[in-house]
Amino acid sequence: MTRIFVPRDAAALALGSDEVAVALAPHATIVRTGSRGLFWLEPMIEVETPAGRIAYGPVEASDIPGLLAAGLLDGAAHPKRLGPPEQIPFLARQTRLTFARCGVVDPLSLEDYRAHGGIKGLERAIEVGPVGILDEVTRSGLRGRGGAGFPTGIKWKTTADAASDRKYIVCNADEGDSGTYADRMLMEGDPFVLIEGMAINGIAVGATKGYVYTRSEYPHAVAAFDAALAVARAAGVLGSSVLGSRYTFDIEQRVGAGAYICGEETSLLESLEGRRGQVRAKPPLPAHKGLFQRPTVVNNLITLASIPVIMSEGAQAYHDFGMGRSRGTMPIQLAGNLRFAGLFEAGFGVTLGELVNDIGGGTRSGRPVRAVQVGGPLGAYFPPALFDTQFDYEAFAARGGLMGHGGVVVFDETVDLAKQARFAMEFAAIESCGKCTPCRIGSVRGQEVMDKIIAGQAVEANITLLRDLCETMKFGSLCALGGFIPLPVLSALTHFPEDFLPPVHRAAA
What is the pTM (predicted TM-score) of this model? Predict the structure, then answer.
């Protein structure tokens, strides 16, 4: 029978892909995949033909009879026919390295994974050994994809050089930033790439156990990853002899309880150890004393998932993409008020304007873009005047922003940036772990000051107070939650001052 690929990614499921699969089942062999990340076309199905895969979308269960009558099984013409998926402009412009298999393979088929280049990186890692792996990762220029941008090779070498009877690898999959979903997509659509990346990391630093800390809001990702772990163990990819080698490595998944602060590495470690998620003072660094006080590599999921392609294709091949000190590719997650929302993986250097207006197609509402927040709730608000900013760690930092986990949330002209600034303070107050005074108290005081500004009370004096408060939080907080909350607040104040005027003046403006 003809094979038809139907996504089971959470976004596609929400839009009816299960019903589509049921309607197609009597007529074809159904292969459930992840998503390619073109969310406005979900559920997007692909039919296997002698000429290659042909995509159709968005497809509803009620469309199936008409599609079959038009010749769906042969890839025939239909208003919902999109053609070869790789030729869809949104996909054709991408450089898919980390997400090369997502939406293409059966996520739980190790044979499929191998057929599309998987396991090659792990085989090479076993061949070159720890020193060779560390050299390759360092030369690739890979930096942490969770937001801090710390060089991965240096972090790994620090843990490798630490003396201990036991070491750990911890994957931070607690993806809590607004507008982000890359971690979820990979766990649901290509979980073996994370398993392979963590195994390579374990070999590199001498760790025998890894933990994946997944957010509780991702039930489909949790189930898919647990199933993939079982397949990997049965095939000898994990266990006492990784791929028949002298190396031992296994992975356990732990599910968080919904605390945003547990995306911060030391709070995550506290939670993994069974305690309340609270920030630890540094030093000591987790690389020296991390999980259970042992040397630990804590990396974001996308960082670890980037390792297999570096090891299989070589450091230089990866380093050739990107710009400056930002090497390789970044999975940019386009969200918010946007016509073409979805995952766009590209080498560093693409501009914010290209992403929003060209690739994203402008606002879904049809109104002008007014602001874009990059980097989640701790990220700055950029106006169109800054749309020439390139996706690069240093370029964003130079303009008072941060890339974070690569989430891009678009707002049209109806957004009120004073209310968004207040939301930043409210968010910090709710999600603060409470350990340090600047974050715990400052965020509550910040809400109060913002309420007075929005109500038009002593606006000038309260704006001065707000700026002072932001300085205290920035330099006095223990971690990035309190330290970065000033970014959205001050950027809104700097770039959209009219939204902070007293109500009577605001109406005139």
Answer: 0.95
